Fold this protein.
Amino acid sequence: MRLNKYISEAGACSRREADKWIEAGRVSLNGQPATLGTQVADGDEVRIDGNLIGIKKQQVYIALNKPAGIICTTEAHIEDNIIDHVGYPERIFPVGRLDRDSEGLILLTNNGDIVNEILRSENNHEKEYLVTVDRPITDLSLRMLAAGVKIMGELTKPSKVIRVNPQSFRIILTQGLNRQIRRMCSALGYKAQRLQRVRIMNIHLGNLRPGQWRHLTSAELAGLMD
């Protein structure tokens, strides 16, 4: 098994992040600095920053209703980090992120392989958000959001947009640019006052209260893996 896959299946991080750690000299194999592409055999000893890791027997998939103010980082020294908030007994990490001021559904796992699968934009996985802006939004603006808005030098992919009330709408995206919805609103002269993610693919926020989390059901997992 390739070293980066071994590390991701141990729940340490994604394969891409594992490659960065290997290049940075943080990973050793049988006491020697590891290199990219290294193969791990049965009985080999893999360490990250001197800490022994191994394949986990059970993979963990969690849905969290992230409150505003919680930061999607695994860095323990950062206050209000998502890992301390969840308090799970095993090492897990978030799949993607919601910015500090945003709230709603986020997944956490110890399976590094699923991360890139969900986040890869060409897979066109849907993510649905409920957005409230600072003033009544026009029908024209909603149509522009749906057609695509130029942010950070590129036009966003077409999306589905549904009005909820004069100042709120639902938007379904298939990409995840940095602070995309906030930037799209800003480009049209609005400020997103509340941004809540309510769905990732087949997984819905449902009745989870802010700060609560639950394990994914077998049906949700099956849909996630399709």
